[in-house]
Amino acid sequence: MKIQELILSIVGAVAVIVGVKSHAATYIDRINPFVVQTVSYAKVEKGTQRYHNVEIIDPNTKKTRAYKLNNVGGYDPDEQYIKINHKGQYVKEIRYISKKEFEK
User: Are 86 and 69 in contact (CB under 8 A)?
Assistant: First the structure.
């Protein structure tokens, strides 16, 4: 019985640590002076306002950035292209844009 309680405690602790770590990146990036605020573009799926693991594109080079944004909140489930003002994982603002603006 003690071994089962120990295993359950360890699994619970790991789950809490992983959950806190994934959310902490947003807050750390927000105040970290070494993370630069930047603008990226992204194509997101329609029909939702919560976007996860968003692949972001540098608007200058048109290349995919080396990392993805874990969570991005939206406000229009009918739109598909967004311009993201972010600082690392911290998303300051999004704006929906046209496909034409996304592709230029």
Answer: yes
CA distance 86 to 93: 7
Q: What is the pLDDT of residue 8?
A: 77
DSSP readout, 17-63?
A: HHHHHHHHHHHHHHH-TTSPEEEEEEE--TT-SEEEEEEEE-TTT-P
CA distance linking residue 27 with residue 39, whole number of Å:
18
pLDDT digits (tens, 9 = 90+) for 16-57: 555 555 556 788 888 889 999 999 999 999 999 999 999 999
Dihedrals phi, psi of 48, to nearest 5 degrees: -145, 165
Whole-structure pTM value: 0.73
CA separation for the pair 95, 31 (Å, rounded)? 22
Q: 39-74 burial, b if ≥16 CB within 10 A, otherwise e?
A: ebbbebeeeeeebeebebbeeeeeeeeeeebeebee
